[in-house]
Amino acid sequence: MGKRKAAKPERAVRADGEGDPLDQTLAEMWKTISAGDVLRAELQASALVSLPFQWEGTEEQTEVLVDALIDAAMEQQYGPVGAAFLRLLMSLGPRVVKRAASEALAELTADDVYPPEWVTGIGKVMPGQAWRAYDVFGDRETVIVTFSYPGEAEHGLLVGVNLAMSPSVSIVAVSPDAAGLLKRIQEAVEPYERFEEISLGDARRRIEEPLATVGDNPYIELDLAELMHVPVARSRLRRLPSGAAEPVTVYTAADRAAAVDEFLNSSWAAEADDLAVARFWAEVLTGYSSRVAGERPGHVGPFRLAAMVLGYAANTFTLTTAQRDSLEAAVSAWVRWAAERQNLDDAATRRLLSKLPEIFAEFPAAYDDPVSVANRAYVRDVAASDTDAAWLDECRTRRQFAVPLPASRDADAAAIDAATQGGRAALTEGEFASCAPEGAEGEEFIAMAKGIVEELWHDNPPTTWQMGKSLLAQGLDEHDAIHRLVEIAGT
Q1: Final residue of a domain: which of 237, 265, 280?
Q2: Positive or negative CA dihedral for 274, 280, 281, 283?
Q3: What is the tally of structural domains in the chain?
Q4: What is the pLDDT of residues 81-127, one digit of tens each?
């Protein structure tokens, strides 16, 4: 056993000389900058700084890319054009890119090489208007905002947000034709969807968190064209007003319990085969439905329903035979009750109920999937049906940080049960044995690593997980973050 495996294969940075895609992209970049086309230059630079999102490469590969971009800008033959490119990188790139570009630009200006005057306006667009297209279930919404540079036509930013899970970006695009983009969205509105103008501040509130967490949701994968627009989208977000946050209703465990009792006392509960099993499923579904602040318990939509049953339930709860056998009757009854409670019209209710047969047909495979089985093992000691869903999700994330899932381990360690202390100890020793120095000091390192893993598993003390999240945010992978936690504990 050794260092945990990457969840997905890495895409190597290509650097094979003439004809290299990066060289071709940079050649187009120089032409655009020379022409003074600000928006097009932003979009092309955005595509370049988004490359690490696209290949999911290592930290070293990202450094290679950053160095390549800075070196290209610093070549003497490009002069002011290269300086303008550095300003674009400073406007759109992540912190590491901004810092490197700023240092490089300082070198150029020290040699009296300056970018053209128009670069001072990069990113300084004027926001225009904002709209929202959304479904009546609250499963998803699309926010459109227009922007313009002085004297130029409006361009549009579109951000689609999936609300069925945690609020996550599902679509992102920047179009030079704002009017055309708006028309296409209006024409695509379905009978169970609505379209309305919103304030610029409301637009920011709706897309700020999803844009900050692009790529965090493993169930939503943006295509390459969309990832290329993320840096520009984040740049545009900064131009929107950030007023005081609207108060959000906080629903408690007591509110969830009251909603469950309301269902069990309704006529719909009579359709369930077994009231004890109906309570179990009602607690599971109600708990998930209010996992995000401001969502009333009992909220449901077709995409949220699939996430509840095929995602949350299948990956969290170890079911009894009775609970599996009564799935269809209990969930159907709860969904009909929830639809009535939300005052959904006939068209929306039909849309919601039409998803049930598909979900029920897919559930056995989803529940028996090895990934679901592994996910359930990580929370089986704490996954009661009335447990807060957001807390359970955080718990599983923390424990999977502490001990890798079977798919991320070496083959000889895949069958070890991480839910037992002995299993965690064996996995930790196997993963960190090659990191430890020889002799007594090595034994001490392994013992400390096992201690850190236990602290993470039980969230005791909570500061260990808080520090672990901070290290992950800095770009460390799980193995290196735990290694660092051991080093900190030893100082």
Answers
A1: 237
A2: positive
A3: 4
A4: 999 999 999 999 888 889 999 999 999 999 899 999 888 889 999 99
Write out residues in the chain with pLDDT < 50, as ranges: 6-19
pTM: 0.80
Q: Give the Cα separation of 282 and 394 in Å (integer).
A: 22
Show which of 335, 359, 377 is a domain's final residue. 377
Do you know the residue count of the chain? 491
pLDDT of residue 20: 63
b/e sequence 263-273, b meaning 16+ C-beta within 10 Å: bbebebbeebe
Q: Which residues are bridge partners to 160 per DSSP?
A: 142, 171
Each residue's pLDDT tens digit, 442-478: 889 999 999 999 999 999 999 999 999 999 877 788 9
Enclosing domain of residue 216: 126-237
Question: In sequence order, which residues have a C-beta less than 8 Å from that of residue 143 and are 6 or more positions away?
Answer: 130, 131, 132, 158, 159, 160, 161, 198, 203, 206, 207
- In this structure, the answer to whether residues 262 and 360 fall within a common structural domain is yes
Tokens of 2: 């050794």
CA distance 205 to 218: 23
248 occurs within a structural domain? no
Q: How far apart are CA 283 and CA 261, in angstroms?
A: 9
**What string of H, E and C letters represents the secondary structure of 344-362?**
CCHHHHHHHHCCHHHHHHH
CB 85 within 8 A of CB 33: yes
**What is the sign, positive or negative, of the torsion defined by CA atoms of 281, 284, 287, 292?**
negative
Q: What pLDDT was estimated at residue 10?
A: 34
Cβ-contact 407, 373 below 8 angstroms:
no
Listed residue (49, 226, 41) closest to 152, CA to CA: 41
**415 in a structural domain:** yes
